[in-house]
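Tokens in:
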């Protein structure tokens, strides 16, 4: 059996959480990541018949039964993951009853998965119904994106349109736009259900006055989506209190989208 600490999915979680903390996206224990793993690959590192303990989930995840995820822990600081992954991460399998998870590795201090895991799994269910290759759900609190929530209308079309205008790459990177939710109590199934509904349409969902969710086939894709939004939000916040002399026009946004062959939200433009 190979050393689990050398597994690519563990190393990737270490590097990504460290990078997100360094960027200021995940202060203290803010933010969480869940990563759908390949059972065969995990089996090279763990005996999948050995369950450390069973943890109640708090909602019905029957649609994901048997699926294995590596998930950040509740109350865990992203800055500590790379130094002690076995305490700060857990590898979980959704039990056959859909109501519990089986801990296969991690949370060695007796901890458990992030309180947002139900929201993550609901989003995984939604995204897998749209894109069977989706593996990552990532939640964080990027500074400028969050700041923008306080000075910009929380309207999906207007929020997306503003960000598309900030960087030439934006309509190419997230042509499907950004879903937006009003402020809601976090750590509940209610916000998870609302997020999952948005995930049927968007790969990015803003939680008003809280943060953002991004999804993707790979860690790079999910991270890159959020990274691009955050850069655009930074440019917006640096310029929003000054007269705008230049901008990317809607006709230019169309030109960009059609040149790169992306399926963009035409209804999010004013043509």
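Residues out:
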């Amino acid at each position: 059996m190979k050393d689990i600490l050398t597994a690519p999915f563990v190393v990737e979680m270490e590097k990504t959480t460290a990078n997100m903390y360094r960027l200021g996206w995940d202060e203290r224990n803010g933010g969480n990541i869940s990563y759908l793993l390949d059972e065969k690959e995990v089996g090279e590192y763990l005996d999948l018949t050995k369950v450390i303990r069973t943890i109640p989930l708090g909602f019905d995840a029957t649609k994901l039964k048997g699926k294995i995820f590596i998930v950040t822990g509740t109350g865990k600081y992203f800055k500590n993951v790379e130094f002690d992954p076995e305490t700060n991460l857990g590898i979980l399998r959704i039990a056959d009853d859909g109501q519990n998870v089986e801990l296969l590795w991690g949370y060695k201090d007796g901890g458990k998965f992030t309180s947002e895991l139900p929201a993550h799994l609901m989003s995984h269910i939604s995204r897998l119904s749209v894109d069977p290759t989706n593996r990552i759900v990532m939640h964080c609190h990027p500074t400028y994106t969050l700041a923008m929530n306080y000075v910009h209308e929380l309207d999906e079309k207007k929020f997306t349109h503003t960000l598309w205008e900030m960087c030439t790459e934006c309509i190419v990177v997230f042509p499907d736009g950004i879903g937006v939710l009003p402020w809601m109590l976090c750590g509940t199934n209610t916000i998870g259900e609302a997020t999952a509904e948005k995930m049927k349409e968007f790969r990015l969902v803003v939680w008003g006055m809280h943060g953002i969710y991004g999804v993707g086939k790979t860690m790079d894709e999910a991270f890159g989506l959020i990274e691009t939004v955050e850069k655009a939000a930074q440019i917006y916040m640096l310029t929003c209190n000054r007269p705008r002399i230049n901008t990317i026009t809607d006709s230019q946004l169309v030109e960009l989208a059609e040149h790169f062959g992306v399926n963009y939200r035409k209804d999010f433009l004013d043509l």
